């Protein structure tokens, strides 16, 4: 991999984490442990859904694609079972260990917060008094308190199934990608195969990254500014149209699902080419250079920190359109920065602990 592409993937991953923070900053459905559901204005519902479930939703699929690309770019299309065995060992340390460790820390945090009278009403999803040991084990392994860890669980599953992706992409080529796209779009098969939409979506983009890597697709290809802005503006209108549909028709309607597929794939290319327009501003930036390598740490630590800040902010300001808007715009950035500087603190003062929690992803 050439140096420029490596830098782009690292920097883009850092920028995508900001989008992930805004995905988790969604607060229309927030629960504060009080009775009653306040009426939320249409404009605020539209704005938050437009950003969270429209503009920002492409971030997670792009992470799956980047993971699929990195999985096999070094093997030059030559799969061996020894390499696969080594891959599983590496991924156990880089994915499973962080998952188990951070999930355990999430449980510990909830227990501590429930011991404090002020914070206990805000975190009532789990009860230290009523939750059995077996239920805590389920939370630890399957339904973590830091809910973003679902991404790691799915990603590990894709690595376990890597021969399926590798040989499918290598020998069936575009047909394999089209087949996964069909599976993603065809509802009846989801229940039959006992797969969720998000699992299939992740598999599609993981396979796409693998396809790009194995078949040597030119990732340094650039488009003109005019072409980019036409693409970006068209995409934003499409996202707005899909957001309106989301608020006006049932969420399980096929039109919602098919438009999600469209805006996600289209948005993938929009963000990929958008980086080329801003690269000259961020790549020489000293702050960006110093922090771009902490993406995984931010991913691990921004939740449940964000949920805590969000609930406290809204509780303090009251539940109304203005408080929800301010919390939505500000708390994701606060949580992002807190997670970033906590990651830097650990890396500087306890490098072994940071390496253990992040699967040895220690920035140079």
How would you describe the overall organization of this protein?
The structure is a single chain. With 364 residues, the chain is an all-alpha fold. It has helices at residues 3-24, 42-55, 59-72, 81-114, 133-141, 150-160, 162-172, 174-185, 187-192, 197-214, 225-248, 254-282, 286-291, 295-301, 305-317, 321-349, 351-357. 73% of the residues lie in helices and 0% in strands. It has one domain (3-357).
Query: Structurally, how many domains make up the residues?
Result: 1
Number of helices: 17
Low-confidence stretches: none
Q: Which structural category do the helix and sheet elements fall into?
A: mainly alpha
How would you sum up the global shape?
A: globular
- The overall pLDDT average reads 91
> How many DSSP-defined strands?
0
Cα-to-Cα separation, first versus last residue: 18 Å
């Amino acid at each position: 991999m050439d140096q420029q592409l490596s830098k782009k993937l690292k920097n883009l991953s850092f920028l995508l984490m900001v989008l992930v923070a805004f995905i988790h900053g969604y607060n229309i459905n927030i629960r504060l442990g009080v009775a009653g559901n306040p009426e939320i204005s249409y404009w605020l519902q539209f704005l938050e859904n437009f950003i969270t479930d429209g503009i920002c939703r492409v971030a997670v699929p792009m992470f799956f694609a980047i993971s699929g690309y990195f999985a096999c770019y070094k093997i030059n299309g030559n799969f061996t079972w020894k390499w696969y065995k080594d891959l599983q060992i590496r991924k156990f340390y880089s994915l499973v260990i962080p998952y188990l460790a951070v999930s355990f820390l999430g449980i510990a945090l909830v227990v501590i917060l429930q011991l404090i009278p002020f914070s206990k009403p805000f975190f009532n999803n789990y009860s230290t008094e009523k939750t059995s040991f077996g239920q805590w084990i389920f939370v630890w392994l399957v339904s973590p308190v830091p809910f973003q860890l679902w991404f790691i669980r799915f990603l590990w599953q894709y690595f376990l199934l890597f021969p399926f992706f590798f040989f499918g992409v290598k020998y069936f080529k575009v047909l394999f990608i089209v087949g996964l796209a069909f599976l993603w779009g065809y509802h009846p098969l989801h229940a039959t195969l006992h797969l969720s939409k998000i699992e299939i979506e992740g598999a599609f983009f993981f396979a796409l990254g693998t396809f790009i890597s194995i078949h040597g697709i030119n990732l340094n290809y650039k488009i003109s500014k005019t072409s980019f802005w036409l693409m970006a503006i068209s995409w934003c209108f499409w996202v707005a149209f899909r957001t309106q549909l989301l608020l006006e028709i049932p969420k399980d309607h096929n039109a919602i699902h098919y438009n999600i597929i469209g805006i996600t794939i289209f948005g993938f290319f929009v963000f990929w080419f958008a980086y080329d327009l801003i690269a000259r501003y961020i790549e020489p930036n000293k702050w960006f250079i110093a922090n771009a390598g902490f993406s995984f740490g931010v991913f691990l630590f921004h939740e449940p920190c964000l949920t805590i800040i969000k609930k406290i902010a809204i509780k303090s300001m009251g539940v109304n359109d203005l408080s929800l808007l301010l919390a939505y715009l500000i708390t994701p950035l606060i949580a992002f920065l807190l997670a970033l500087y906590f990651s830097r603190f650990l890396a500087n003062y306890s490098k072994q602990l940071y390496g253990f929690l992040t699967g040895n992803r220690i920035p140079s």
